[in-house]
Design goal:
Blueprint (H helix, E strand, L loop, with lengths): L4 H22 L4 H17 L3 H14 L4 H13 L3 H8 L9 H13 L3 H14 L4 H13 L3 H8 L4 H4 L2 H13 L3 H14 L4 H13 L3 H10 L6 H20 L7 H18 L5 H16 L3 H13 L6 H13 L3 H14 L4 H13 L3 H13 L4 E4 L4 E4 L1 H16 L3 H14 L4 H13 L3 H14 L4 H13 L3 H14 L4 H13 L3 E11 L7 E10 L7 E14 L2 E16 L2 E10 L7 E9 L4 E9 L6 H5 L4 E13 L2 E12 L4 E16 L2 E14 L11 E18 L2 E16 L3 E15 L4 E14 L2 E15 L1
Antiparallel strand pairs: 1-2, 3-4, 3-18, 4-5, 5-6, 6-7, 7-8, 8-9, 9-10, 10-11, 11-12, 12-13, 13-14, 14-15, 15-16, 16-17, 17-18
């Protein structure tokens, strides 16, 4: 504080003593003279430092004469000297500032400020200044109290009320520096301190103020050098804090280095310096403690997560409570290492220390998402947004702008709905944000992600492109667009984007995720589908199995893959068994909206009976696709026909409508010609919709309709002249477990319908089925299931139990 408190206290004591003496001479005799004499003795005792004894005397006198106002004045002043600020405040409540002597006003004002009753301090200093408008000490006290109360502008106006020559004096300049520090304007504060030191080169409070201001302007080396030239300005703890700042600042500069490609070199250099300093420092010192904190943060930034976790756990084992930023850094390390339980624990510790830290809340949100506690996760951004106004004032409070922190919270709330499988709700929220702030690139980028997750890759591309037009260096949009290029089968563009991102953002987790996907995309792929079971009838065989397996090579020239295929089917009939074993060599081509496959297939035994299978698909829009296939010696040939030496060729066209993940429909028309002269024309229509959707569970409803007609009536295989089938069904789908890329999902469903065959009438048909899907990791997915069904053929019902299994792996 720039005020000379000892001078002020002496002045108050002298004033108080004179007041008592004047009062005593005006009353020469009587009981009042004894009171005044004892009052004067109490004041002398207080001046001699015997404050408690003086206050005891005054308390006794006040009990004898409770209405004696001079006694109240003197007691209040001495209570202020004794630092009994609560008692001063109680006495002040009995006084009228406009009728209180100046020495009492000053004592009450100073006591109020010392006890952080800043509004009361302003009130009493204002009254004192009204009584002595030319008092420099009172004006300085009022200016500082106003700044303490949060009104630095009023404090500056009060200080400027000093005459020009006094404003350039040391005390006024010290007060000006104090106001600047309250405004966090540390450079002007340093200028004021320099002006004071030009007048008084060894003034301790000015030197100390400059040291602390240098530290706040991120100049800890200069601050420490000044303290070294003037020992004793700082406490040992403050010196340790500044030394820690030197290392922390070097680490921060390394972390924020613009050299993205080799940024770890600078971080590791800073970490080495911290390690060297820790090795020479007393382990229990404040400096060592702060350096250990900074080391953990630096290790996380250098992606040395396991080391960071080890040091963090050692920190906890030692009983060190840590700090909010250390717990946050540890939480990030745990999250990166796929340890969300420990991440939540660390982040909760940080949250307890700094509940307002938005970045801690953000990472806590992601930890809860990974722990599948979505309701808790969504409550975080919802709560943050609810606490903030949509508009915030900046600068001098005359300028308004959208509240960026609230906007970020609302974006987090929107994307959180997507993580909770509520993509439609996420889309609505993010579209509203983009409509309100079209240039908010964070909202637009996340909207692009939601479009992509809903299958709308063209709409996603438009959003990513707009974001990158406005900000070419936004890494999230960069990687999002590359993911979208993979979805759009633009593989060369995806790789080019990835390589550019790796050069520019080598440390970004989003780039690693993209790189991982690209690596897996370039693996070989194995797809296996198997089905086997028993039927009470023999229309298609009493015991049956089918195996269809394809092995795709890694991509060649971006768009091509070769594959080998084996197709096995077998059935037991009442008059014997039959099996069909085919192999194939084929090529797949994928580019943009197109996908085409073609293969030559043949019997594995003898490598004869060649056939052909080809298919073409074309994506018209985000929602519409069309396709068709041709098979010569078709895989769809019934085994009874093949057993009789009858082959078939098949051609089909189909189309699909995919509105979003909640609704889709498709239709197919096919013509199958058997070489016994029979032609089968068929049509199949399906539609599926989500009836109920909650996190980890959904209920889908679907309907299918199928109709076939044949040209021949006496075929040796099942061949209805005309038949129509209709089914409605539902699937209960629930996720039991998810941990990053490992997911366990169940599906229990069934359908019920009617099958009508010409000349045989209508009969009920049904199916009940269960399937378990297990995504082992991002390379391997397994599934298996069982179904029980009833079908009717030529009027005869057949009940069947079938098992199925599938593998989709990349190696």
């Amino acid at each position: 504080m720039p005020m000379n408190t000892s001078r002020t206290s002496t002045s108050c004591a002298t004033t108080l003593l004179w007041a008592v003496l004047i009062a005593s001479t005006s009353l020469a005799a009587g009981p009042a003279s004894d009171v005044l004499a004892r009052q004067a003795d109490a004041v002398e005792m207080a001046r001699a430092g015997k404050l408690n004894s003086a206050l005891d005397i005054l308390a006794g006198l006040r009990s004898e004469t409770p209405d004696n106002l001079p006694l109240l004045h003197d007691e209040t002043v001495i209570l202020a000297w004794a630092g009994r600020h609560d008692d001063v405040a109680r006495n002040a409540a009995q006084l009228d500032p406009q009728a209180t002597p100046i020495y009492v006003l000053k004592a009450i004002a100073k006591s109020a400020r010392d006890s952080q009753r800043f509004d009361q301090a302003v009130e009493w200093y204002t009254a004192a200044l009204g009584a002595q408008p030319h008092s420099m000490d009172i004006r300085i006290g009022l200016a500082m109290a106003q700044a303490d109360a949060g009104d630095t502008a009023a404090g500056r106006d009060t200080l400027n009320g000093l005459p020009g020559d006094l404003r350039n004096g040391a005390d006024a300049l010290m007060t000006s520096a104090y106001l600047h520090q309250k405004e966090r304007a540390f450079i002007p504060a340093i200028s004021n301190y320099d002006a004071v030191l030009a007048l008084e080169p060894n003034r301790t409070d000015a030197l100390r103020g400059k040291v602390l201001a240098l530290r706040r302007t991120l100049l800890p080396r200069q601050a420490l050098a000044l303290e070294t030239r003037h020992p004793g300005l700082l406490t040992a703890e403050e010196i340790a804090r500044i030394e820690a700042d030197i290392y922390a600042l070097a680490l921060r500069h390394a972390i924020q280095s613009p050299d993205q490609k080799y940024s770890f070199m600078h971080v590791n250099r800073a970490l080495n310096a911290i390690d060297e300093r820790i090795s020479t420092e007393e382990p229990a010192s404040q400096l060592a403690r702060r350096l250990r904190y900074d080391r953990i943060v630096g290790l996380v930034e250098a992606m040395r997560w396991e080391q960071a976790i080890r040091y963090y756990e050692e920190l906890l084992d030692s009983g060190d409570p840590g700090s909010a930023f250390v717990h946050h850094a540890a939480g990030r390390a745990y999250l990166t290492r796929h340890r969300p339980e420990e991440a939540e624990t660390a982040l909760r510790r940080g949250e307890a220390m700094d509940p307002a830290d938005r970045m801690i809340q953000l990472d806590l949100f992601y930890a809860l998402v990974e722990l599948e506690r979505l309701e808790e996760a969504l409550a975080i951004p919802d709560r943050m947004a609810a606490r903030l106004n949509e508009i915030e004032r900046v600068g001098n409070a005359r300028v308004s702008q959208p509240n960026r922190v609230r906007m970020q919270s609302e974006i987090m709330a929107g994307i959180g709905r997507a993580y909770a499988d509520r993509l439609h709700e996420a889309q609505e929220r993010l579209e509203a944000l983009v409509a309100a702030a079209p240039n908010n690139l964070d909202a637009r980028y996340e909207l692009g992600n939601v479009y992509r997750w809903r299958g709308w890759i063209d709409r996603a591309e438009a959003e990513y492109k707009q974001v990158l037009t406005l900000d070419p260096n936004r890494v999230g949009a960069y990687t999002g667009r590359a993911h979208n290029a993979l979805d759009r089968r633009e593989y060369r563009a995806a790789e080019e984007t990835l390589r550019t991102a790796q050069r520019k953002y080598v440390t970004a987790a989003a780039v690693w995720d993209l790189d991982r996907r690209w690596i897996i995309h370039n693996y070989n792929q194995l797809i296996v589908e198997a089905r086997w079971g028993e039927s009470t009838g023999t229309t298609f065989g009493s015991d049956q199995y089918t195996l269809d397996a394809l092995w795709f090579t890694r991509p060649l020239r971006y768009n091509y893959r070769l594959y080998v295929r084996t197709f096995d089917s077998r059935a037991e009939f009442d008059d014997g068994n039959h099996s069909r074993r085919r192999a194939a060599l084929g090529t797949e081509w994928r580019h943009g909206p197109w996908r085409a496959t073609g293969e030559i297939n043949f019997d594995r035994a003898g490598i004869d009976n060649p056939g052909f299978a080809g298919r073409v698909d074309y994506r018209l829009t985000d929602q519409w696709t069309i396709g068709g296939d041709v098979e010569l010696d078709s895989y769809a040939t019934q085994l009874r026909a093949d057993r009789a030496g009858i082959k078939s060729n098949r051609i089909s066209i189909d189309g699909a409508f995919h509105r979003d993940e909640r609704y889709n429909a498709s239709a197919r028309v096919w013509l199958q010609d058997y070489d016994d002269g029979n032609s089968v024309l068929g049509v199949l229509v399906t539609a599926r919709t989500q009836l109920y959707d909650r996190f980890r569970y959904r209920l889908d409803g679907y309907a299918t309709g199928r109709a076939v007609t044949s040209s021949r009536r006496d075929a040796v295989y099942f061949n209805p002249e005309q038949a129509v089938e209709g089914l409605i069904g539902a699937d209960n789908i629930w996720r039991q477990y998810r941990r990053y890329d490992t997911v366990l999902t169940h599906r229990l469903g069934g359908n019920l319908g009617v099958f009508n065959q010409k000349n045989f009438g209508s009969d009920a048909i049904w199916t009940i089925e269960y399937e378990l899907s297990w995504d082992v990791n991002d390379q391997l997915a397994l599934r298996a299931g069982v179904e029980r069904s009833r079908r009717v053929y030529d009027g005869g019902p057949e009940d069947a139990t079938f098992w199925h299994a599938g593998i989709n792996g990349r190696f």
